[in-house]
Task: structure prediction
Amino acid sequence: MTLKNIQEDVDKWTGQFKPQYWTPHEILARLTEENGELAREVNHLFGTKKKKSSEQESSMGQELSDIIFTVVCMANSQGIDLQKEWEQMMNEKQYGRDKNRFDKK
Amino acid sequence: MTLKNIQEDVDKWTGQFKPQYWTPHEILARLTEENGELAREVNHLFGTKKKKSSEQESSMGQELSDIIFTVVCMANSQGIDLQKEWEQMMNEKQYGRDKNRFDKK
Amino acid sequence: MTLKNIQEDVDKWTGQFKPQYWTPHEILARLTEENGELAREVNHLFGTKKKKSSEQESSMGQELSDIIFTVVCMANSQGIDLQKEWEQMMNEKQYGRDKNRFDKK
Amino acid sequence: MTLKNIQEDVDKWTGQFKPQYWTPHEILARLTEENGELAREVNHLFGTKKKKSSEQESSMGQELSDIIFTVVCMANSQGIDLQKEWEQMMNEKQYGRDKNRFDKK
Result:
């Protein structure tokens, strides 16, 4: 499943709704909501506030997928090619601004 | 109820727990979670995804209180005096960096 | 400085701009931005990615004030009385839903 | 570029650093920071606070890539297979819990 496929799949799925995509501010609010759900999961799994045993199974993978889904909605609604953007970012990480940002081994 | 009172009330309430305050990263994650709940409420009230009538009452005031509570926990855990910080910020808004940031009437 | 004073001060300061308050979605986006600045500060101070010595002074108190400011803007724009909401929340924490949420000493 | 490729590329790039991945709470804080940068961009492009002309070019595609990068770091650090999680989520959207969540055309 490539980034292009993912963008197409989301476009197909959202195509059944009206409007197909919310406004950028609404999609951003949804992303903030999904980010919050991941945050709760991180505190549950790794923080002081442990989950009760009945709810122990991790849903982190699904929370991460929800975030990607929302990011793809934003990209699709704005005509952004994530594959191209991803390559540009990785290129900059390797050769540009982020090159010496962290301690190498 | 002053900011000082608020910090004291939170300190008193959290004082019954062990540990009294989580780590900064855990409090931050909680803040992200609360921010997400506000985001859901904003989309419910003002966005495309309307709430069903049975859940129409706004909880925005409580969500905002939850955020303030979490901010106060962070401040208390780090020995930060919010009254002093608030005055410094308002002072900078009036006389400093933010003075000409937005369009005046 | 009481919560009422704070709401009045913000109302006075924002009163010089047009519009006085953004839409709820825009204020929420600003809150997400401020939350992000606090997150960067938390990682700088307590995480793996340490700040360089030239930027070591903590701005956490100012970041927390920025969050409170944004929360107050949201409350003011929606006619929410934060003092009343705060008391309701603390009351619920003491006698209601949150009473047994965490481990007591 | 598939989700598997993306996870591998990130793993290879992060493999040059020590530690390769931060703790979940640190990665979450980074995600909150990136979410905040997207929020600023959304307000700049679509909100009341317009950017000055000198900074008009949109960086939304890069902000979205930064979020995906951070999500992939979290997944890699926890041994999560994003391809599998993505398929499960899309499957649930089509046949499960989210099926009737929004208004169809």
In short: The CA atoms of residues 11 and 93 of chain B lie 29 Å apart. The radius of gyration of chain B is 17 Å. Chain B touches chain C through 52 residues (CB under 8 Å). Helices of chain B lie at 3-14, 24-46, 60-77, 82-95.
